[in-house]
């Protein structure tokens, strides 16, 4: 089937081309019934905007840049799927860059995106980014920017994140309600926004149940650290009865380390991760985790950015949009009748 145009839609519905064009752009000048007729007809016949014609007419590239720490991370690949779905539906294309957790690489990719004349940027900050001057300078030049997942309060723009505080609170509360009191927390560098929010949720749950916060039960690893055994050993010295980790990657490393030391899960130590990796339910035992709505975060971030680009928001309308998380309980954190003391189990 040949691609239909705005003129084809206008002829079929007995409307002017300008009316159809404004209806497709969701203009307030067009009444809802006309918008409905136009959008339904466009969807029925698979109408797609001519991106080249639009970019020439509007002096826009119809392209948005997306910068993530690592595409291979399942969370970011899901978020990108959400971003691309929204972008495509609104006539935009996406260029994806990776910072590889490097501040210098992030600056270079931002410069590359700007050189390609993107209409706006979606960014999840690298683990080594603490200074956002490079992004603030772009804002001063009126380039729309939306941060998602890892954000910075030093940038006056829209943030889209998971409810990291609520997810961590729910995970810690679940462990407490199953009888755990010495809950170790293995996490990523302390200056990253998601680290701070998840630690705050962990602490709030302890406080709710009158359990003292113990800094010796907290260990920070570098992001991308593959060998977590030294950190697990340091925590085991504190006789924990549960591990709550800030990511499923850390949780899987923790699971391997505990099994290597013949520490049974969940009889001796419970384990909960954060993300809901696709293999979580295939592990032995299946791993409890906090599910982050990566797809929805990507979709919302793209909507916010495109709305800024198209002037559907006044200014940048800075603010935070928080998407709820979901606690998924599996065998790794089930209540056990009588947990064995850790030191006795370790000595077997």
Automatic annotation (TrEMBL):
It comes from the Bacteria. Signal peptide: none annotated. Pfam families: LacI, Peripla_BP_3. SMART domains: HTH_LACI (SM00354). The lineage of its organism: Bacteria, Pseudomonadati, Bacteroidota, Cytophagia, Cytophagales. InterPro entries: HTH_LacI, LacI/GalR-like_sensor, Lambda_DNA-bd_dom_sf, Peripla_BP_I. The keyword Ligase does not apply. Keywords: DNA-binding, Transcription, Transcription regulation. Residues 4-58 form the HTH lacI-type domain. This is Transcriptional regulator, LacI family. GO terms for molecular function: DNA-binding transcription factor activity; transcription cis-regulatory region binding. SUPFAM superfamilies: lambda repressor-like DNA-binding domains, Periplasmic binding protein-like I.
